[in-house]
Amino acid sequence: ITPTSNFGSSSLAVLIVLVSDNVTLTNNPTDSNGNEWVRYYRASDFDVTYPSAEAVFVSKQLSTLTTSDTVSFSIGSSENYSAFLYELTTSSSKRPAFIKAFSANSASSDVTIVPSSEGIITGDGIIAWVSDNTSVAYTGDGDTTDGSWSAIQTEDNPNFSSVIQSKIITGTSTQTFSPSVGTWNYVGYCAFREHSLPDENLSGFFGL
Fold first, then answer.
1. Cβ-count burial of 30 within 10 angstroms (0-12 exposed, 13-18 middle, 19+ buried)?
2. Residue 53 and residue 42 in contact, taking contact as beta carbons nearer than 8 Å
3. What is the mean pLDDT of residues 146-171?
4. Which of 12, 45, 115, 137 could pair covalently with 88 via S-S, beta carbons 3.0-4.6 A apart?
5. Cα(109)–Cα(149) distance, rounded to whole angstroms?
6. pLDDT tens figures, 75-122
7. What DSSP character marks residue 139?
8. Contact (Cβ atoms closer than 8 angstroms) between residue 58 and residue 38
9. Can you tell me the distance from the alpha carbon of 176 to that of 2, in angstroms, rounded to the nearest whole number?
10. Cα separation of 117 and 106, whole Å?
11. Per residue, what are the HEC states of 27-76?
């Protein structure tokens, strides 16, 4: 997968891979700039019967990613999948960080996020998805409750389709991600929060 725009060196790169069956993602991704990628979430790590290998990978940029770079990952060669690459940015004094993810095999169910019970606070970023083992028609979620969903991103083929959108939470109301795609098998989301950078000035020296 290739970025559609240049990623900054202080941003967080997020790769979300949705796979049609419970397969092993054989390695962490790599990219042509040598950035380190870490898997923060995989659905089958939490439910061995889960039929979709949904995974979230995060890279703290050591060098930029540009539209001429590639991010590579390995899955079972016969599996159908979707992959989405996001850049998360904040102000110069802060950095984005992964805080949680959730997914479920819930046919025809919306993605429901209850901030008060799931540790989500105002200002957090949400990326939510649905996917299905068929080709489906889709319309993005246009709900604006406590934040507006981004433009829809999709991947559609005869055997696997995915819809994904993101938003910044501006309040604590229950969030529902429900794009119009008929029915779907797999739903999920991941959340990120910006953190202030530590003060790196030496303020004292103590010894025994």
1. middle
2. yes
3. 86
4. 12
5. 18
6. 766 667 888 998 888 776 777 888 888 777 655 567 788 888 888 899
7. B
8. yes
9. 30
10. 20
11. CCCEECCCCCEEEEEEHHHCCCCCCCCCEEEEEECCCCECCCCCEECCCC
